[in-house]
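Please check what follows.
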Amino acid sequence: VTSVWLLHLLPAPEDVRAVVAECARVLRPGGVWVTTVDKAAGHNVGSDIDAVLAARPPSAARDAGDEVAG
């Protein structure tokens, strides 16, 4: 199961929990879930995407690694 750069887009912590729960539900025993966390840490690193996103209002990222793992 993959959910790449998804969790940070969800509007509330309960939405993140629901997506993680659904990934766990559909994952077969012994399967692997591949996701990304801590999207906010990837900003302002001098890449082209920083210029593209500069005009957007900041929003809270709901994909903190420790919370997703929990």
Q: What stands out?
A: Helices lie at 13-26, 48-53, 65-69. Residues 2-69 form one domain.
